[in-house]
Write a structure and sequence with these properties.
mainly beta, Immunoglobulin-like, Glucose Permease (Domain IIA), 2 domains, ten-stranded antiparallel sheet, three-stranded antiparallel sheet, 2 helices, 39% strand
Amino acid sequence: MTRIPSPNSRALLLLLLLVLPLPPAVAQPRESLVPGGVALIRLDEGERGYRFRNRPVLTARIDGVPHAVVGIPLAYKPGEYHIERRGVGQVAKKFFRVGPKAYSTQHITVPDDRKVNPYASDMPRILAEKARKQKARDHYSERPVDLDFVRPVSGVSTGSFGRRRVFNGQPRRPHSGMDIAAPEGTPVRAPSAGTVIERGDFFFSGNLVYLDHGQGLISMFAHLSEIDVEIGQRVAKGDVIGKVGATGRVTGPHLHWSLGLNGSWIDPVLFLPAD
């Protein structure tokens, strides 16, 4: 015989559902097989040494299982790609397929037109800073990585990764990270443990910091009002590295956060807890 819960029982069940904690979020990062996304490739126990685009591949346990975590360049076309491991007289390959994704276009008016059309006298500085940025993005260190990222700052997301941007009517490169609007002076925290490998005041990015999280996973934080760390400093997850500002090419105070993996910028939201 089926028993129908009494009104009091139903009320107690509803109360328990309201007060019990929510189940834990899905493990990070989340796979997204599109340009600018992430491929998660399952590995056998002890299997290492894979490379992608001639760069070492990040390996980590996700839900207790070893995986290769591969950043897919934003410029990649849909199709089949692979990671590979070379041994004596043999090559092992693991394949994944990248699908299409259409990114939106964002038109932005920058009050300081010099940040859109630099003077000729600005170019030596810009080119020198470009080389420093490239070196930081390509940095690699062999250390375990904590993939359980947290948001570097609380605020409203105002610029998504991959958007085609038009500054003052002129097309520029796609957006290489995510923008989070917050009041100037809001602390910016390390989303995961890392080592500071670059910092300074840059022409387009303003005050910025690069963090090496290990195995080719790199964070870049731009437009800061203050920098609170030094090159070579080791920071823990949640440590303050600077404060939100409006330096460089901006329209207002916000944090620009880029996340690089195996030399390519990828969508940082894939490394954050799902809403």
